[in-house]
Amino acid sequence: MKKEYWLERWRQEEIGFHQSEINPYLSRYWPELQVAPGKQVFVPLCGKNRDMIWLREQNLSVLGVELSPLAVEAFFKENGYSPRHIMGEKFDQWDADGIRLLCGDFFDLKKDHLAQVDAVYDRASLVALPPETRDAYTDHLLSILPPAIRILLVTFDYPQAEMSGPPFAVSTVEVEALYGKHTDIRLLAKFDVLTENPRFQQRGISRLQESILLLTTRTA
């Protein structure tokens, strides 16, 4: 899946993957991460995710990365911010009220970008990636994070043959395969959510589960 695919989705406003409401799992399970006020949370492939507003309201600073400048502009405009915009070689940087969004390619991120990060919130990035991209994504993420970081991960799982993503099906078994060598993984909850998602039923999905997982990176 090429960069142009996502840029075009935003240009055409084909963003059915965007949730206008704050994810209910975030407030319910965020305390499991034990992140102190004032710390920084990283939100990869953030789009215009309103969960970042909730995180900021918890007195956390937020760092997001997003490929589409339209998504970044929409986030600040729709939430009433007037951001400072700094152009850069790899990333344009947008800042307002403790929220910093880097507009550019996730794979161009370096350790320096994430040096102050204390936790990661991934509701929409891993499930946005096709299977052939996930190894590279998780390898890169783990290579640039500081040690002993906790990740709150939300995944979808459904019979992949019944629908082409995104969002793609990511099972807890696959999460173990992707992250297990370098993180300790705890399944916090798993829910059957097909009846709550009529658009997936309309696409012929017979089973839909959401899993909420806590991953903790090892120090060695």
UniProtKB/TrEMBL annotation:
Keyword presence, Cytoplasm: yes
Keywords for this protein: Cytoplasm, Methyltransferase, S-adenosyl-L-methionine, Transferase
Compartment(s): Cytoplasm
Gene3D superfamilies: Vaccinia Virus protein VP39
Gene Ontology CC: one annotated term: cytoplasm
Reactions the enzyme catalyzes: S-adenosyl-L-methionine + a thiopurine = S-adenosyl-L-homocysteine + a thiopurine S-methylether
Known EC number: 2.1.1.67
Binding positions for S-adenosyl-L-methionine per the UniProt entry: 10, 45, 66, 123
Molecular-function annotations in GO: thiopurine S-methyltransferase activity
Main location: cytoplasm
Cleaved signal peptide residues: none
Pfam families with a match to the protein in the record: TPMT (PF05724)
InterPro entries in alphabetical order: SAM-dependent_MTases_sf, Thiopur_S-MeTfrase_Se/Te_detox, Thiopurine_S-MeTrfase, TPMT
GO biological process: methylation; response to metal ion
Family classification: Belongs to the class I-like SAM-binding methyltransferase superfamily. TPMT family.
Family matches, as PANTHER family: THIOPURINE S-METHYLTRANSFERASE (PTHR10259)
NCBIfam families: PRK13255.1 (NF009732), TMPT_Se_Te (TIGR03840)
Identification of the protein by name: Thiopurine S-methyltransferase
Native source organism of the sequence: Nitrosospira multiformis
Organism phylogeny: Bacteria, Pseudomonadati, Pseudomonadota, Betaproteobacteria, Nitrosomonadales
Encoding gene (name): tpm
